[in-house]
């Protein structure tokens, strides 16, 4: 059973989707919201597995709402007709439905979701750390016109830029509105290591380790980034690695 | 350089090849310089934009001035160059004249000083023959003189040359201009067509159509009566958007029917978030208006105004006469954002349509008014 929240500014659109979802007993609609602010509230209080999200809404758009979440649940976008929004997606990164929704397309989207879920369940059985973000959690990142869902495991590095953090993954490095300290609290410390005041690195993405001045270390990541580990953190790093 | 052109046949019989070639070169160089000067002046004067009469006047003055300048410049340069073919030929002719004088047995006679002798028929004939053959004659003091008719002929030839050249130049540019005009007109026509098509297409926003259909599907169970009505409303809008390109204007009443259907559908989507106020002067109902124009404004009021407000707002449509004009107002809750100003397609296409149809007698403006409202206003002439 999956818990779902529908976020759409039109009551009739929400009703129509609920009606369609009656055909799928594995999905339970536990809440609805009429705009991004309500949506955020519902997601935080109900922590659904899945949200159906309209893109064009009064106040904030669906995209804007997602960027404010620490960790995005599974998202199926619903939109009537919005070429710009659809262009913004990194293709195949996520699923979207066109309103009026075709029941067959809905079934496909839900099935795809279930497959992804099963894979994650198997992987997540190993280490369960409630409240912490694991490598399997995804964040929604928007940089100008482009959007991505990024699995934390794919992130090599977080770099502090004022109140923002720059997220390094594949060839991209967009900004997210989160401080490095806030991120550090939520990230799994077994995977993500605070190398210095400005950087959090993914330990699985380290290519090379070299000694550095003052008893520090220099880490080279898969993407070629070179990150200095301060002396204090280097001690901690060696402790962790020696285990 | 008249001689170089009229004495082709016998040009080298008496030598002077070098003089001939140098003079010919000078002739062509001066010709090119002079005609280019004329061209420069013509281009400065922007002749292609002048009337036919003015062009004709410029043509005559230009030919006269350039032809004369051509002749004198050429002459001065040739004479100073030391290679004047004219001088060379004249010298030869003088020699010939002296020889002829001998042949006629006049060389020892002072015939030129004695009018009686000069009138003698054989002497007079000899003088005329010599003059004809060589252009040279003696004045009454015995000095050789030339009867130079060639100056006028020469100027005439130069004028003719320049005239032909200028005629070709003007004709060429005339044809070129005409062709360019045609191309420009074709381009303009395509742009207008494109614009028209875009306007028609933009009349009904696909986002609106699909959202409406989605709402209707939800209503089929919830409120079948309303769903049936909504289908009629949507059909009306689609039909009139397809017919919009067929007629220049429609009565305001017809346009308002579409606006009402449109607002009814949007009300179905937004429910209590959309309040509608219509404020229509009955007398304006028969006034002709461009089809789908008011509708576009109302659609923008919803798209940029109401749909962005979490708590929704009001759309107010006003039609009234004001100072001999028909005034249409669409007001909506919201604020104009700075970056969308005037560059938006809806605004631009409305302005373009009004300009095309009423040639500056109609006006459009959009601005913030009191109480968190945006107002778009169209003023157009009243038709009696």
CATH structural class of the largest domain in chain A: Alpha Beta
Number of domains of chain B: 2
Major β-sheet annotation of chain B = 5 strands, mixed
Rg value of chain A: 20 Å
Percentage of residues assigned to helices of chain B: 55-70%
Q: Which structural class is indicated by helix and strand composition of chain A? A: alpha/beta
| SSE series of chain A | EHEHEHEHEHEEEEEHEEEEEH
Written description of the protein model:
The complex is a heterodimer of chains A (243) and B (384). Chain A has helices spanning 11-21, 36-46, 62-67, 83-88, 103-124, 180-186, 231-242, and strands spanning 2-7, 27-33, 50-54, 74-79, 95-98, 138-143, 146-151, 155-161, 164-169, 175-176, 192-194, 199-202, 206-211, 217-221, 226-229. By secondary structure, chain A is of the alpha/beta class. Chain A has a five-stranded parallel β-sheet. Chain A is elongated. Chain B has 384 residues and is α+β, with helices and mostly antiparallel strands. Chain B has two domains: 2-172, no CATH class; 206-381, Heat Shock Protein 90 (2-Layer Sandwich), CATH 3.30.565. In chain B, α2 runs antiparallel to α3 (52-81), α4 (85-103) runs antiparallel to α6 and α8 (206-222) packs antiparallel against α9. Chain B is rod-shaped, with a radius of gyration of 43 Å. The A-B interface holds A 9-13, 15-16, 19, 35, 37, 56, 58-59, 80-82, 98-101 and B 206-207, 209-211, 213-215, 217-219, 221-222, 268-271, 307-310, 312.
Gist of the model:
The complex is a heterodimer of chains A (243) and B (384). Chain A is α/β, with parallel strands linked by helices.
Structural key phrases:
heterodimer, A: 243 residues, alpha/beta, Rossmann fold, OB fold (Dihydrolipoamide Acetyltransferase, E2P), 2 domains, five-stranded parallel sheet, five-stranded antiparallel sheet, 31% helix, elongated, B: 384 residues, alpha+beta, Heat Shock Protein 90, two-stranded antiparallel sheet, 12 helices, 62% helix, 14% strand
């Amino acid at each position: 059973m999956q818990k779902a929240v529908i976020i759409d500014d039109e009551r009739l659109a929400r009703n129509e989707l609920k009606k369609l979802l009656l055909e799928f007993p594995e999905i339970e609609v536990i809440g609805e919201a009429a705009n991004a602010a309500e949506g955020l509230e519902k997601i935080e209080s109900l922590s659904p597995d899945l949200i159906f999200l309209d893109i064009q809404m009064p106040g904030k758009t669906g995209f804007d709402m997602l960027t404010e979440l620490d960790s995005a649940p599974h998202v199926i976008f619903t939109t009537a007709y919005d070429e710009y929004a659809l262009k913004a997606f990194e293709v195949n990164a996520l699923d979207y439905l066109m309103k009026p929704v075709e029941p067959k397309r809905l079934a496909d989207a839900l099935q795809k979701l279930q497959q992804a879920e099963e894979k994650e369940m198997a992987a997540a059985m190993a280490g369960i750390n409630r409240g912490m973000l694991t490598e399997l959690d995804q964040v929604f990142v928007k940089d100008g016109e482009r959007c991505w869902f990024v699995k934390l495991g794919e992130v090599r590095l977080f770099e502090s830029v004022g109140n923002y953090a720059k997220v390094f993954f594949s060839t991209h490095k967009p900004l997210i509105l989160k401080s490095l300290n806030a991120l550090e609290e939520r990230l799994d410390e077994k995977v993500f290591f605070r190398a210095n005041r400005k950087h959090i690195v993914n330990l699985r993405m380290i290519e090379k380790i070299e000694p550095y001045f003052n008893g520090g270390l220099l880490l080279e990541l898969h993407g070629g980034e070179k990150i200095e580990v301060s002396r204090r953190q280097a001690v901690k790093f060696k402790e962790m690695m020696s285990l | 350089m008249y001689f170089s052109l009229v004495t082709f046949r016998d040009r080298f019989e008496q030598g002077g090849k070098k003089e001939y070639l140098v003079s010919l070169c000078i002739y062509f160089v001066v010709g090119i310089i002079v005609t280019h000067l004329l061209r420069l002046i013509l281009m400065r004067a922007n002749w292609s934009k002048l009337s036919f009469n003015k062009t004709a006047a410029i043509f005559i003055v230009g030919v006269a001035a350039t032809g004369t300048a051509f002749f004198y410049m050429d002459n001065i340069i040739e004479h100073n160059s030391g290679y004047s073919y004219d001088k060379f030929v004249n010298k030869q002719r003088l020699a010939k004249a002296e020889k002829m004088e001998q042949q006629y047995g006049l060389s020892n006679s002072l015939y030129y000083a004695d009018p009686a002798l000069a009138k003698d028929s054989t002497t007079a004939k000899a003088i005329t023959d010599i003059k004809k053959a060589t252009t040279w004659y003696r004045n009454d003091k015995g000095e050789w003189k030339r009867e130079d008719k060639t100056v006028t002929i020469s100027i005439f030839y130069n004028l003719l040359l320049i005239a032909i050249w200028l005629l070709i130049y003007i004709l060429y540019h005339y044809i070129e201009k005409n062709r360019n005009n045609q191309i420009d007109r074709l381009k303009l026509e395509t742009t207008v067509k494109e614009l028209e098509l875009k306007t028609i297409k933009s009349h009904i926003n696909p986002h609106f159509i699909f959202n409406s259909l989605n709402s209707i599907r939800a209503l089929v169970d919830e409120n079948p009566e309303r769903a049936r009505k909504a289908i009629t409303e949507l059909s009306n809008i689609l039909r009139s958007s397809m017919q919009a390109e067929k007629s220049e204007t429609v009565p305001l009443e017809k346009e308002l029917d579409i606006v009402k259907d449109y607002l009814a559908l949007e009300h179905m989507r937004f429910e209590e978030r959309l309040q509608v106020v219509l404020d229509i002067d009955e007398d304006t109902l028969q006034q002709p208006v461009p089809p789908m124009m008011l509708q576009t404004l109302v659609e923008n009021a919803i798209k940029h105004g109401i749909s962005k407000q979490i708590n929704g707002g009001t759309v107010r449509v006003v039609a009234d006469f004001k100072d001999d004009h028909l005034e249409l107002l669409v007001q909506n809750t919201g604020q104009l954002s700075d970056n969308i100003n005037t560059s938006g397609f809806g605004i631009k296409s409305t302005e373009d349509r009004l300009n095309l149809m009423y040639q500056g007698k109609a006006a459009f403006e959009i601005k913030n008014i009191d109480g968190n409202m945006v107002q778009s206003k169209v003023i157009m002439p009243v038709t009696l």
